[in-house]
């Protein structure tokens, strides 16, 4: 259907064009702008008043002139064509295929802006997701329907970690033991915003080489793409995820990198529109804008599908109090923090033990979900590693020779914890039973009477056999 069309522009300011027509125009409506050569470029309405409408282009303004340009209001929001053919496809940030194939065969189009989930319709997340990574599964467990971001820094291996999660993530139907479980694979929606070409190529090559691309939908908005495309990309990705989860009843894992690039684009667009800046120049609505993305994850009663989010953001100057990680932490249910010091010591993945947490972990572990001892082992590992940090600080002041025997045992535990439990290969997939067994082994480095957070029956069942077998790294 052809929309309302007007001739002439009032002003052209970079990627934003101003027209005096605003009758029957809606916010976020898609607009087609034609230059004198009939070249067509799309944009969307970003601001309006009674007398004018501001349109931001998905591209540059080359060839546009105020007198000879035409503006067509299409009367609909930005939409994504969805269908069963989504899986295995690669799209740009606007949902257009870039893999050499045509549009998917479907007549269904969804508004990319989505709709907020009614809180009453939400189901509390309780199902364990196995990523095969001990630092996450054992101590910061990911739950189906959760939003668990990864806080990283420039140069840290967050891209490798994200690719590993995409390869290995599975749903475990636990029967209370560490073996004999049937696994159901995830469908993954991967969205990259503002990444360089070599980073995008790394992900695509990894997905193709490991054979997971057939179960992945990829949205790529490269660093040279317009800022507005970077803002639309995660909305397209989440729209595809909602279709797969709630229409096709699939379990969807959404990995979005890098949210910092998204927020930088939001700041750029806000500056162009002349809005009053807030903290560090970001718009005052940064919190609500991020929440509009993060809150599209979850489980809905009446649907067997689910959407789990892992947003990845690089903290500027490794500052966790920066507005982007700070606000993300308020909205999401925990965070995985990558530590530069661990990375420099060769630990992969360099997951910081103490700043990382998963707020929904307590409801998705234990008998019938992972293993009966999971909660106790995790709590004891956290407590012991916290003591290691204190002992290391003390040793830096008085010297390691002056430490008590008990403190020296904790130092040894800290080394084994980082070398054996945290460190694993990039292609090493550990099930939850293996992860918990490794946790018990490293706990044998501290005295038995220090295991204050573990029930005595678990100590007799798991701890004593390791000591009796001499399989405790000593």
TrEMBL record:
Q: Where is the ATPase F1/V1/A1 complex alpha/beta subunit nucleotide-binding domain?
A: 132-358
One Pfam family per UniProt: ATP-synt_ab_N
Q: Which GO terms describe its biological process?
A: proton motive force-driven plasma membrane ATP synthesis
Gene3D superfamilies from the xrefs? Answer: 3.40.50.12240
Which keywords does the record carry? ATP synthesis, Hydrogen ion transport, Hydrolase, Ion transport, Transport
- ATP synthase A/B type C-terminal domain residues: 363-462
ATPase F1/V1/A1 complex alpha/beta subunit N-terminal domain sequence ranges: 10-75
Q: Cross-referenced InterPro entries, in alphabetical order?
A: ATP-synt_VA_C, ATPase_F1/V1/A1_a/bsu_N, ATPase_F1/V1/A1_a/bsu_nucl-bd, P-loop_NTPase, V-ATPase_su_B/beta
Q: Which GO terms describe its molecular function?
A: ATP binding; hydrolase activity; proton-transporting ATP synthase activity, rotational mechanism
Q: What's this chain's function? A: Produces ATP from ADP in the presence of a proton gradient across the membrane. The V-type beta chain is a regulatory subunit.
Family the UniProt entry places it in = Belongs to the ATPase alpha/beta chains family.
Name of the protein this chain belongs to: V-type ATP synthase beta chain
Name the species this protein comes from: Leadbettera azotonutricia (strain ATCC BAA-888 / DSM 13862 / ZAS-9) (Treponema azotonutricium)
